[in-house]
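Trying the structure run again after the queue cleared.
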Amino acid sequence: MRARLTWLDDLTGAQAATWAGLFRGSVAGESRPRTAARLLTSVLASFPGHGGGWSSLLHARIAQGHALVGDTVGADAALATAQRYRQPWVRFFDIEITIARLWVAAARGARAEADRLAAEVVTESRRRGARSTELVGRHLAVRLGARDQAEALDELAPDLPTPRAAASAAHAAALRDRDVPGLLAAAEALEACDLELAAADAAAQAAVVAREEGRTAASVAAAARATTLAARCEGARTPALQEARSPLRISDREREVAILAAEGLGNREIAARLHVSVRTVESHVYRACTRLGLPDRASLAAYVVDQPEP
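Done. Tokens:
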């Protein structure tokens, strides 16, 4: 897809740069999240009212870019703008907002919330009869670790006879079957679709499956493949990559607490955000520090920020 955008270089006229930035930013997507956020931000001023009817969509995609590199503050700001400009009669934009919320949740370690939002994308897509966005939602669920999407994606693939649909279905089947070679083959297929971050997730899942089965050499090789793919993605972070890079596991809730601490929230603020007691937050911090051999809360916060980098 990126190679086919060379025609943008020949555009002329006052709006040439705007349309080039819009298309290139959209295509950069999650595999080039910093580029996507930068290019889409650069074109906002060219639209009436800094986006006009497009503002919700553009800011949702900008939020996705920020969230994928761990900039939850920037993501929250862009997401709030997307919500403010939301136009109820353009429901496709709602799905983009939901995907942005999913990546923000994932960036904060809120895995259950990210899973719920992936299901919301699927439900809304099915309600609208939007098979292509249903496929995106189901594949997002697979990338988050869902093992129950293979049958549905197999049913979708014939209706969407594209390499992406086939690769998504293959990824789901391989994850369901804990098939390490199958996951690596799916990574190759997704990479061929210019979906490097999704490919990195498939390879990362292969590394985790192999590690859980005690196949150290296979795990190391798959993790190296995931790292190579992720290195092209401008520092993007996903739950699958985090899991592959963390040989000593902490729970999803412990990671979520640590990420909120890294954002500067105190224990009382974290407790309010997660609707738990302060004592529960303190317990999560203590257990995570113990498991990771870290001396204090600040070290834990630094760990979850630094760990996902390639």
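The chain has a mean pLDDT of 87. Worth checking whether this holds up in the mutant runs.
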